[in-house]
Amino acid sequence: MLNIGLLGCGRIGVVHAGSIARIEGARVAAVSDAVPAAADALAAKTGAQVLDSAALIASPEVDAVVIGTPTDTHYDLIHAAAKAGKAIFCEKPIDMSADRIRDCIEAVEAAGVPFMTAFNRRFDPNFAHLQACLAAGDIGDAEIITILSRDPSPPPVSYITSSGGIFRDMMIHDLDMARFLLGEEPTTVFAVGSALVDPEIGVAGDADTAAVTLTTVSGRICQISNSRRATYGYDQRIEVHGSGGMLRAANVQEHTIETANARGFATAPAKHFFLERYEAAYLAEMQHFVTAVRDGTVLAPGITDGLRAQMLADAASQSWETGQPVKL
Amino acid sequence: MLNIGLLGCGRIGVVHAGSIARIEGARVAAVSDAVPAAADALAAKTGAQVLDSAALIASPEVDAVVIGTPTDTHYDLIHAAAKAGKAIFCEKPIDMSADRIRDCIEAVEAAGVPFMTAFNRRFDPNFAHLQACLAAGDIGDAEIITILSRDPSPPPVSYITSSGGIFRDMMIHDLDMARFLLGEEPTTVFAVGSALVDPEIGVAGDADTAAVTLTTVSGRICQISNSRRATYGYDQRIEVHGSGGMLRAANVQEHTIETANARGFATAPAKHFFLERYEAAYLAEMQHFVTAVRDGTVLAPGITDGLRAQMLADAASQSWETGQPVKL
Amino acid sequence: MLNIGLLGCGRIGVVHAGSIARIEGARVAAVSDAVPAAADALAAKTGAQVLDSAALIASPEVDAVVIGTPTDTHYDLIHAAAKAGKAIFCEKPIDMSADRIRDCIEAVEAAGVPFMTAFNRRFDPNFAHLQACLAAGDIGDAEIITILSRDPSPPPVSYITSSGGIFRDMMIHDLDMARFLLGEEPTTVFAVGSALVDPEIGVAGDADTAAVTLTTVSGRICQISNSRRATYGYDQRIEVHGSGGMLRAANVQEHTIETANARGFATAPAKHFFLERYEAAYLAEMQHFVTAVRDGTVLAPGITDGLRAQMLADAASQSWETGQPVKL
Amino acid sequence: MLNIGLLGCGRIGVVHAGSIARIEGARVAAVSDAVPAAADALAAKTGAQVLDSAALIASPEVDAVVIGTPTDTHYDLIHAAAKAGKAIFCEKPIDMSADRIRDCIEAVEAAGVPFMTAFNRRFDPNFAHLQACLAAGDIGDAEIITILSRDPSPPPVSYITSSGGIFRDMMIHDLDMARFLLGEEPTTVFAVGSALVDPEIGVAGDADTAAVTLTTVSGRICQISNSRRATYGYDQRIEVHGSGGMLRAANVQEHTIETANARGFATAPAKHFFLERYEAAYLAEMQHFVTAVRDGTVLAPGITDGLRAQMLADAASQSWETGQPVKL
Asked: B196 and C143: CB-CB below 8 Å?
């Protein structure tokens, strides 16, 4: 039985607790949250102990921690958990600063603890299947990757200002997906961006509509586009054009019903809410964590993947600000 | 050069003239119509002579005739053309009476002239491809065939009363398609029907909504359904479930554009008008006629196919009227 | 908290226990099974008591029973549970004999206990959405319903002989779906059937390929086809053609990935296994049971729906055996 | 009757002659080609006179010319036809040099003759419908445009070396489409490219895999990607993400048949050959030319559109060569 301590009982903490309940060989042993009511509620549902974060990390009854607290607390929690010898599952981004992530890597490597960066989309069954087909050589070598990612609606401007910007907050998922699929590290990054959805986002110094082009050493190309608005749901599509064919991941729609009338044929919007859209991915990523920690096998994506995605997001931000491509 | 005489310059005659203009090695040599203006117009466009039907059939400058006149004139024209030794392309139905079709068969066989019954849907590139895949064994043996066929809107009741009823006027196309795909002759027919679209059609003694079940000697099953109404266009679909898989022909839509918004994803209606929907089929059937007559190869569907479809339509009508299955 | 006693801990019992675990306000309080190990295993997972069926039904700690035992035991369990005043959730078919179901109805009505017949497909989110659109008038009145239902592969012949035949064992789901969607009771039933998948099924006196046509008093038509074989997965499709349009439920595929190569574009098979295909339906039907019992609202489908579906299956069997349509 | 002189009787000349034959109010009056046999063949089919290019342009029996000769001859033919007062339909590119196109504009404007640049894709019924929906405000303002364009297979390297490179030879169509849809002129161009399909193309100094990002003054973004290889046919897709929704143009497949088996569901490749894929577009562009010349209405795309597309292709080439974005 893997005894897991949940650091953070907010929205994502509740999701992880629900996943753990559906996984054999794991349980929520302890929970902590800066808001006592949140911790109490989750404890009531799971039967876990409520502890403060230091006690949770120190507890001999906790084998592994799931970090779902605000980003600026990750650094200290990772260091503490590593020192305590716990396996670590950490929400993205690990930190807003690549240098501070490098510190975390040092701490984790020194302690020799397992670490997983929670890029949940890699575990979406559709995207995971696409990657498996690609890795199996079904379409030969990847040549052009197209990632289209649009949120149903923008966050409040107050969130934007502390988010690190669209490249670090939103596109980071797509940048990780690009790395997952390209099979090579990107060597150049070029970004453009505009505030078309909400002018206030532009005033706040950020973009809400953005596009990035990545290239790799062997000449593979990846185009990503993001928008903070999509009237038709949470738009999440990927396609890989390869030497021998193409792989495409379509959207996941709310239902399979088609309605026909004089206007033609209509189907459902894409699932709107990310927790619903990626429900299976959240379950699968936790399953991977539990299995790999139990069996001592490799955790992927690891802490270095968290750093690399952050470096790409930093480079994209810089390219957008300067109007010039950035080399890595 | 195959010199073709067009008997009938109405809507379907114009379509056939247009097809002949696109086919190498054939031309419209002569035209006739009970309405002189119709014949004159088509002559002006094609450069053909205007003749009365007897003169057209007798003309040594005519190698083949295309019969596109009202159904009740087919019998005499077929007999005359056969006697004159012309190749014959005849619109469906050959005649409303199976016995009179048998007379035509006798005349055609006695004369030894090529004869083609114009079941255009067999030549639709999609349906033709489906049949070719089936014949090639792509899904093993056919087991269940489902044919869904719906007109955009009902004809006037005045037409209904002289049409022979929905089974002979509309479903006959689907009954021929069933024969084309089943690979065996149907041995039982069971029909149901209602007047749901227009009560006047029911008063006139016909149905506007109908369904038929066919079975064959080896136990294959075919279900057909018809409606005289479809708000979303001319609905023409076929699927064949076989021992090794399934083949499906989807509708042909007006365009490929998909529009997404808060209601979801929308595509175009099915093409509404049968002349537009089956444009490629009309061209292909005439190409087949011209090529087969020129090369002396087999014409299919032939005159017996016209008889068999009519017998199935008669049986379906009888089943509907009696409420009992009919054996063939 | 609704305390549920599970009668039967086989495959379907385990599914229901899993559903109950995900539903707030309900728990598995007791379990029973003729095979002690099955009951023990489920008890270990849920924390329920193991009792024999009589004790379970008698237990004051049980508010409601879920009957997932072999069909021939339903009759006695329903009578006992009704007498004990328990709410009853019963797997389909209630019984192989319509007369014995009528006895059960009497017992349930005399006791005044809530009763739900577990036609799970009504709770599939896609089919439920289709029915809701239809009920909301999105396509006007239903005119032609087409239900296509194919199992991935046939059961062993040994199962067939005790199954009541394809109409009672397999098509009963589609017959219930037809009632769910037609909005009127069927008044005539015509059935055909063949043994095309496995000749041994024919030798055993059953069909493995079958089709039924239903009509209603106002002239609505429903065509159903079944096969015990589908190489491409568990094929479950419905379409309703109405006066104002059409509603269609497509298959649920294993994933959303499309692969393109020189052969064209390929997508995943339909989900193969019924427990996986209808996972959401099993959860939703149990949620409905728990909610309706708790709130005292109407349970649907009820016990009469179980009887009506069985009567349709009986009529279809009779039609197939006699070759004649059957009136209801 | 518009009397058209065809300059060039190669593959595209034959296409245009076929289109003219299907258009009322127009005919091929004269043809010319450097290869006499080509001119003679087309004359035999159309009944046109064979003339040399100077005589054709001078002929009082010619109202309009269609220029389908090699690109390096366009400049002189345009000047001569303009001087002779003929309406001009010219294949793309008008010329490889933007400056020489400017000379042509001067000549055309001085002569006041109608001029159409043959960007056929604007006339594809699907793309034209997409543009009409966009112009009608169906999805609000365009924000992100994605154009995916892949040829089935690369041309021989010998062609590459005289083609002007992938941006001028292939992507120019997509750059024109971007202008057609963006509603604003692009102000920055950034290009990347690689030789992944055929290393010889790289040795020849060109790319066979390329991507461009365009931005406009108001911040709209367009991403284009090209490959000289697509195993699944001629891949031609467009999508426009707007403030109110999305419009997408799917590929045109060879047929509508879907085959299902244990591997899943398979549909046809995209139409392979550009003449077949854009058959309707070639007809529609000629129809537009004939109608606009006859009615004296505006021809679009005009000669300036030819220049602007060339300037974008030049900028993309420069960006690719320098690795820097180019401002316009």
From this structure: yes
In three-state secondary structure terms, C88 is: strand
Contact C236, C251 (CB under 8 A): yes
B104 and B18 together in one domain: yes
Is a pLDDT exceeding 90 seen at residue D47?
no
How many other C-beta atoms lie within 10 A of the C-beta of residue C186? 25
**How many angstroms away from the CA of C130 is the closest CA of chain B?**
15
Residue of D139, D147, D190 to mutate, interface with A, max A Cβ within 10 Å: D190
Which residues in chain B touch residue D133, judged by CB atoms under 8 angstroms apart? 257, 259
Task: Print the domain residue range for A201.
Answer: 122-278+308-327
**pLDDT above 90 (res A274):** no
Can you read off the two tokens belonging to residue C242?
Answer: 């109405």
The C-alpha atoms of residue A236 and residue A282 are separated, in whole angstroms, by: 16
Q: Report the neighbours of A using a cutoff of 3 or more CB pairs below 8 angstroms.
A: B, C, D
Find the CATH number of the domain harbouring B57.
Answer: 3.40.50.720
**Lookup result for tokens 């303002």:** D141
Which amino acid is located at B270 in the chain?
A
Please state the pTM of the whole predicted model.
0.95
Same domain for C164 and C260:
yes
ipTM: 0.95
CA diameter of chain C: 67
Q: What are phi and psi of B173, to 5 degrees?
A: -60, -40
Give chain A's mean pLDDT. Answer: 96
Separation of alpha carbons B307 and B305, rounded Å = 5
Nearest-Cα residue of chain C relative to residue A251 = C256
CA A35 to chain centre: 24
> pLDDT tens string for chain B (328 positions)?
899 999 999 999 999 998 998 888 899 999 999 999 999 999 987 889 999 999 999 999 999 999 999 999 999 999 999 999 999 999 999 999 999 999 999 999 999 999 999 999 999 999 999 999 999 999 999 999 999 999 999 999 999 988 999 999 999 999 999 999 999 999 999 999 999 999 999 999 999 999 999 999 999 999 999 999 999 999 999 999 999 999 999 999 999 999 999 999 999 999 998 888 999 999 999 999 999 999 999 999 999 999 999 999 999 999 999 999 999 9
Q: What is the SS3 assignment for C236?
A: strand
Residue A191's CB is within 10 A of a number of other CB atoms, namely 29
- What is the C-alpha separation between B160 and B154, in angstroms, rounded? 9
Which of A150, A223, A231 faces D211 most closely, judged by CB atoms?
A: A223
Instruction: Let me know: does C222 contact C145? Beta carbons within 8 Å.
Output: yes
pLDDT, tens digit, for every residue of D101-151?
999 999 999 999 999 999 999 999 999 999 999 999 999 999 999 999 999
- Is C97 part of a structural domain of the chain? yes
What's the CATH code of the domain at B221? 3.30.360.10
Task: For tokens 């998922």, name the residue.
Answer: A173
Residue B109 and residue B172 share a domain: no
Residues D301 and B315: their CA atoms lie apart, in Å, by 59
**How far away is chain B from the Cα of A254, in angstroms, using its nearest Cα?**
9
Q: Total structural domains in chain C?
A: 2
Same domain, D179 and D37: no
- D184 and D108 in a common domain: no
Identify whether residues A132 and A7 lie together within a single domain.
no
**How many CB atoms lie under 10 A from the CB of residue C1?**
11
Closest chain B C-alpha to A266 CA, distance in angstroms: 4
Chain B neighbors of A268, CB-CB under 8 A: 264-265
Q: Which chains touch C (3 or more CB pairs under 8 A)?
A: A, B, D
Residue A297 lies in a domain: no
Torsion of CA C290, C291, C297, C299, to 10 degrees: -50
**Would you say C5 and C85 are in contact if contact means Cβ atoms under 8 Å apart?**
no
| pLDDT per position as a tens digit, C63-75 | 999 999 999 999 9
